[in-house]
Amino acid sequence: MLTLKRVYEPAALEDGFRVLVERRWPWRLDKASAEIDRWEKQVAPSAELHRWFGGRRARWAEFRMRYALELGQHREKLVCLKAVAAKSGR
């Protein structure tokens, strides 16, 4: 199962294998307190897509579609992440 959670929220036992999907390290967060298992910059939305979206709710549906197209270019990475998470037992 995949669950989304903000990296600023504290880690919990039920979180399982924690992957940060973001191109830049989150502001004011040290790596130890983030408690992530893996940081995957490559599968995060591109800088161009982030700029285009700009947090505008009216663009959310199109953002999702464009991001899905970007993710299609990283299928191998996604398959690998799924396998690693399954093996981790978390």
What this model shows, in words?
- With 90 residues, the protein is mainly alpha-helical.
- The chain has one domain (13-88).
- The chain is 41% helix and 4% strand.
- The chain contains four helices and two strands; from the N terminus they run βαβααα.
- Strands 1-2 form a two-stranded parallel sheet.
- Strand 1, helix 1 and strand 2 (38-39) form a beta-alpha-beta unit.
- The longest helix has 14 residues, at 75-88.
- It is globular, with a radius of gyration of 14 Å.
Could you name the key traits of this structure?
90 residues; mainly alpha; two-stranded parallel ribbon; 4 helices; globular
Short description:
The protein has 90 residues and is mainly alpha-helical. The chain has helices spanning 31-34, 47-53, 60-71, 75-88, and strands at 19-20, 38-39. The chain has one domain (13-88).
